[in-house]
Amino acid sequence: MGKIVFLDIDGTILDSNKRIPDSTKEAVRLLKDNGVYVAIATGRAPFMFKEIREELEIDTYIALNGQMVVVDGKPIYQYRMPISVLENLTVKSKEMGHPLVHMAVDKMVANVEYDRNIEVAIKSLQMDHPPYDPDFYKNAEIAQVLLFCTEGEEKAYEKDFPDFRFVRWHELAVDVIVRDGSKATGIRKTIDYLGFSIQDTYAFGDGLNDMEMLKEVGTGVAMGNAHPLLKKVADKVTKSSDDNGIYYGFKSLGLI
After folding, report:
1. What's this model's pTM, rounded to 2 decimal places?
2. Which residue among 3, 71, 172, 187 sits deepest, i.e. has the most Cβ atoms within 10 Å of its Cβ?
3. E strands in 104-218
4. Domain map of the chain by residue range?
5. Quick one: how many helices (H) and strands (E) in the chain?
6. Would residue 115 show up in a list of annotated catalytic residues for this protein?
7. Which CB contacts under 8 angstroms, 24+ apart, belong to 83-89?
8. Same fold, 4-78+181-252 and 83-178
């Protein structure tokens, strides 16, 4: 059927200043001109990258680390965390002194009025501290939780929540997602729906939450600015997001 490319957002589509380089815009345009299907694969919720989708004219995406899949603007999959798990996680996090942010498709809400770690980590995404509502998770469809703790502190949760993974995306925060959920899961659902072969899939990423994705696809590409562990599993390493990494990567693979 052709080829499909999945692009992470932070550190991949966006440079270190959280901007889309002109070279990336041009590369995506050329990719489409060549008949290559382009999709986004991110840990962000859909409301957090609406402008990026619009600017690049991409309406197929994997959001919330695979917890939601949308193809050509149509949702084909969405995971909802069980209330019992959310309640147990709330109890555990209070014992540990770690705040939470609950993420739905259209908004995110903190279970504390203010926390500096939340502010610092969320600000790295160029977003404000989420509003406060400790009961939000009881009525909303929560797809993912952000747990704010420092390196290694997430280990205390792993034995109590064996069905979930705690994946670090910031020195102060980890994503809490279902164990068999990942961007790779979202990619499988997307290509099965569209009829692509796994050999014809490509993925570009930079973080630890891109690990499964780069292993899953036919060709996994780590950005020059990627985590060292991601570079080890990648089939190829391109230049950094600040140095035309997407354009260079597409070009070196013969996609444009």
Report:
1. 0.91
2. 187
3. 108-110, 144-148, 164-170, 173-178, 201-205
4. 4-78+181-252, 83-178
5. 10, 13
6. no
7. 83/137, 83/138, 85/161, 85/163, 85/164, 86/137, 86/138, 86/142, 86/145, 88/160, 88/161, 89/145, 89/147, 89/157, 89/161, 89/176
8. no
Six-digit token string for 35? 């008949």
Q: Which residues, including other chains, have CB under 8 Å from residue 9's CB and lie 6 or more apart?
A: 40, 42, 44, 49, 52
Query: What fold characterizes domain 83-178?
Result: 3.30.1240
The first and second tokens of residue 120, run together, are: 């610092």
Mean pLDDT by 10 residues, the chain (256 residues): 94 97 98 98 96 98 96 96 97 98 96 98 95 96 97 95 94 95 96 97 96 97 98 98 98 97
**CB contact at 8 A, 148 and 98:** yes
Residue in 8, 15, 115, 175 annotated catalytic: 8
Looking up tokens 């939340």 gives 118
The CATH number of the domain covering residues in 4-78+181-252: 3.40.50.1000
